[in-house]
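Record 1 of the preview.
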Amino acid sequence: MSEFTSPLVLMMLPDRQWSVYEKFEYHVGELESGIVLRVEKGFQTDLASIPRIVWPILPPHGNYGKAAVIHDYCYVHAIESKEWADNVFREAMGVLGISRWKRFTMYWAVRLFGKGNF
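->
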């Protein structure tokens, strides 16, 4: 089963960037991959890359922050494929209890516009 094993602890950096202050893990489960994603201390993220005009509805630092960090980690390290990373993002948002409409909206935003190192 999918799960996060520890809290997300971040340190604020300039220019709306964040640094992971304590490592954390996400166990990818529903995708049956057997993969544990370990985000190390010092990994930098902007959390959710959401255009400023949408921030009143979907702020970049919402309760989907852990899922956004995992997604950024997958993109930066080109883990599996873009499609796989986007599916992990959707799965992780489900684990966090993010509402269906937010999961749907954010998933399709990254599917259509997300850019990674693949």
